[in-house]
């Protein structure tokens, strides 16, 4: 039996981008449904630890932030999208605070850190569980509203029909068709599935399998840079319970450095992600790496240089996890090696987050262009907030017209 329901705006994906879009669309007066493959809590965004970028420093500006993004992308990012991302970053932070996100503060202002590829300190954090804090606040706001949650809805097809869009799902009770005036795709990337195919580790949630990107392309949406997958430079390599864990890059912001088997620093530890990952791969290829007790390649991340006061404020979750495994990162260096982390490319969008298929919007990791072929840390959660809001508001306007 095939059920059918109708909404103004249908959001597919329950990470930070999808939740931001759903909350924004509802605030704009739309009747909203949010569909997710499993549960609202199951997403990559909640696993994001490092933080979110926004230019609040006295020596910083959205323009400098944009320059850093373009340089890190090797000038492959869409400048218009980058300008929107960086110029709207401060207001996105204030919006998240309004929803209940409490960013770590120091000396009367935000506690800012410099992240890889950045020329200024502009990374805001909630300890080292920033993604968890943001998704929790957004989810609670969505659940408190009038939106409809469609859990256990796995997208199988998206098509245009007369004056609406139709999304077909597989559910526990069979097939279901959902009609909507506008659809927001926010179902993330594919690095969990890609890592499984390659026999590698990934930081991603098991839901990151990429079928929504494929379905959108089959429906006629244009894409870009889909081959540009990103490695997180500092994947956990040992102990086994930490393999695939994304060691926060803020470890390097607060003083940690990468060392080879001889104890020598071999790269700029605050370089862009692709450069740091490539340097680690090259060092291991030269025979200058180390091996984990189970025989995996690695190098050392010397976390003993991090001041204890900084670690207790900004890295408490990382400390708890390693100490529970019998390792104190402030007393000994830890094994690290790059792991698959992020889909840099995705669906082509404009400034309103609309794709090349009328009425279909995209935001978050599923969208391409904002980061080009190499993303800076701290800009994924920012993209979710900035373009999630834009997508939700634009989808609501589309529904009204």
Oligomer: single chain
* pLDDT < 50 stretches: none
Large-scale geometry: globular
> Can you give the helix content as a percent range?
25-40%
Tally of individual helices:
12
What is the typical, i.e. mean, pLDDT?
Answer: 96
| CATH fold annotation of the largest domain | FAD/NAD(P)-binding domain
Q: Any guess at the CATH architecture of the largest domain? A: 3-Layer(bba) Sandwich
Q: Structural class per helix/strand content?
A: alpha/beta
Q: Tell me the strand percentage band.
A: 15-25%
- Main sheet makeup: 7 strands, mixed
Number of domains: 2
CATH H-level homologous superfamily name of the largest domain: FAD/NAD(P)-binding domain
What is the CATH class name of the largest domain?
Alpha Beta
- Let me know the number of strands: 19
Distance between the amino and carboxyl termini? 32 Å
Q: How is this structure best described in words?
A:
- There is one protein chain.
- By secondary structure, the protein is of the alpha/beta class.
- It has two domains: 3-190 and 344-400, FAD/NAD(P)-binding domain (3-Layer(bba) Sandwich); 230-340, Alpha-Beta Complex (Flavocytochrome C3, Chain A, domain 1).
- Helix content is 32%, strand content 23%.
- The protein contains twelve helices and 19 strands.
- The protein has helices at 16-27, 62-72, 79-87, 89-98, 130-144, 191-198, 211-218, 250-253, 273-285, 308-314, 316-324, 380-400, and strands at 3-12, 32-35, 52-53, 105-106, 109-110, 123-124, 148-150, 154-161, 164-171, 174-185, 223-224, 229-236, 257-259, 290-291, 297-302, 334-343, 346-348, 360-362, 367-368.
- The strands form five sheets. Strands 1, 2, 7, 8, 9, 10 and 18 form a seven-stranded mixed β-sheet that branches.
- Strand 9 and strand 10 (174-185) form a beta hairpin.
- Helix 2 (62-72) crosses helix 3 (79-87).
- The longest helix has 21 residues, at 380-400.
- It is globular, with a radius of gyration of 21 Å.
- The protein starts with a strand and ends with a helix.
- The relative contact order is 0.21.
């Amino acid at each position: 039996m095939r059920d059918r329901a109708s909404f103004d705006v249908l959001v597919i994906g329950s990470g930070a981008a999808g939740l931001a879009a759903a909350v924004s669309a509802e605030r704009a007066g739309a009747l909203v449904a949010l569909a997710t493959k499993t549960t609202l809590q199951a997403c990559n965004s909640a696993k994001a630890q490092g933080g979110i970028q926004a230019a609040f420093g006295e020596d910083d500006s959205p323009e400098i932030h944009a320059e850093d993004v373009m340089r890190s992308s090797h000038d492959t990012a869409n400048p218009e999208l980058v300008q929107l991302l960086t110029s709207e970053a401060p207001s996105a932070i204030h919006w998240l605070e309004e929803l209940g996100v409490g960013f770590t503060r120091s000396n009367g202002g935000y506690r800012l850190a410099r992240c890889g590829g950045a020329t200024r300190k502009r990374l805001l954090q909630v300890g080292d569980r920033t993604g968890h804090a943001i998704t929790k606040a957004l989810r609670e706001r969505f659940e408190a509203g009038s939106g409809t949650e469609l859990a256990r809805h796995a997208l199988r097809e998206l098509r245009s029909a007369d004056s609406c869009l139709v999304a077909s799902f597989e559910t526990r009770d069979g097939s279901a068709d959902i009609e909507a005036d506008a659809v927001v795709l926010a179902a993330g990337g594919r690095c969990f599935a890609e890592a499984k195919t390659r026999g590698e580790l990934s930081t991603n949630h098991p839901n990151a399998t990429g079928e929504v990107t494929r379905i959108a392309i089959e429906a006629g949406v244009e894409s870009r840079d889909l081959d540009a997958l990103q490695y997180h430079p500092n994947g956990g390599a040992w102990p086994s319970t930490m393999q695939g864990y994304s060691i926060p890059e803020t470890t390097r912001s607060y003083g940690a450095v990468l060392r080879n088997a001889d104890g020598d620093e071999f790269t700029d530890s605050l370089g862009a992600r692709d450069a740091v990952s490539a340097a680690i791969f090259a060092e291991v290829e030269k025979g200058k790496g180390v091996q984990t007790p189970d025989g995996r390649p690695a190098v050392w991340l010397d976390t003993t240089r991090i001041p204890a006061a900084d670690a207790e404020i900004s890295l408490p979750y990382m400390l708890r996890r390693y100490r529970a495994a019998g390792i104190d990162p402030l007393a000994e260096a830890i094994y690290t090696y790059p792991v698959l982390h992020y889909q840099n490319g995705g669906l082509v969008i404009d400034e309103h987050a609309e794709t090349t298929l009328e009425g279909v919007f995209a935001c978050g990791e599923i969208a391409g262009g904002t980061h080009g072929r190499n993303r800076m840390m701290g800009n994924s959660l920012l993209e979710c907030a900035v373009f999630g809001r834009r997508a939700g508001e634009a989808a609501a306007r589309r529904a009204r017209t």
